[in-house]
């Protein structure tokens, strides 16, 4: 509908962030995989945040969170640094 009404609008979709709970990450990974597959449809541009926030085990990096879900200051700074180039494009 957005493409019909506003054909020049660029749509950006961000992948879901990991959590420290493996059972939740399984669903996060399913959703993120679907977003990665469908980005080739050309409907949106994907900002793949997840790999930047995941530790080697695929869970949220403990350096970026207070509780395994919510970002701390360092986590938000990382998020801004990733998204900012997309926002400031001309």
Cα gyration radius (Å) = 15 Å
Largest pleated sheet: 2 strands, parallel
Indicate the CATH topology: Rossmann fold
Which superfamily, in CATH terms, is the homologous superfamily?
SGNH hydrolase
Oligomer: single chain
How big a fraction of the residues is strand?
5-15%
Major sheet strand order: 1-2
Structural class: mainly alpha
**DSSP, total strands:** 2
Q: What's the CATH architecture name?
A: 3-Layer(aba) Sandwich
Q: What is the number of domains?
A: 1
Query: What percentage of residues falls in helices of 4 or more residues?
Result: 40-55%
- Uncertain regions: pLDDT < 50 for 5+ in a row? none
Q: Judging from the principal axes of the Cα atoms, what is the shape? A: globular
Terminal CA distance reads: 24 Å
CATH class: Alpha Beta
Quickly count the helices: 4
Rounded mean pLDDT score: 93
Helix-strand sequence: HEHEHH
At a glance:
The chain is mostly helical and 90 residues long. The protein contains 4 helices and 2 strands; from the N terminus they run H-E-H-E-H-H.
Structural commentary:
The radius of gyration is 15 Å and the shape is globular. The chain has helices at 2-5, 22-38, 50-53, 73-87, and strands at residues 12-14, 45-47. 44% of the residues lie in helices and 7% in strands. It has a single domain (2-87), classed as Rossmann fold, CATH 3.40.50.1110. The model has no long low-confidence stretch (mean pLDDT 93). It is built from four helices and two strands; from the N terminus they run H-E-H-E-H-H. The two termini are 24 Å apart. It has a two-stranded parallel ribbon. The protein is mainly alpha-helical and 90 residues long.
């Amino acid at each position: 509908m957005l493409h019909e009404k506003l054909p020049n609008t660029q749509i950006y979709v961000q992948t879901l962030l990991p959590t420290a709970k493996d059972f939740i990450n399984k669903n996060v990974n399913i959703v993120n995989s679907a977003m990665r597959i469908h980005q080739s449809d050309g409907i949106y541009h994907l900002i793949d945040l997840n790999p930047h926030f995941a530790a080697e085990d695929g869970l949220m990096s403990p350096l970026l969170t207070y509780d395994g879900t919510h970002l701390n200051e360092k986590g938000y700074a990382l998020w801004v640094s990733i998204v900012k180039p997309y926002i400031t494009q001309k």
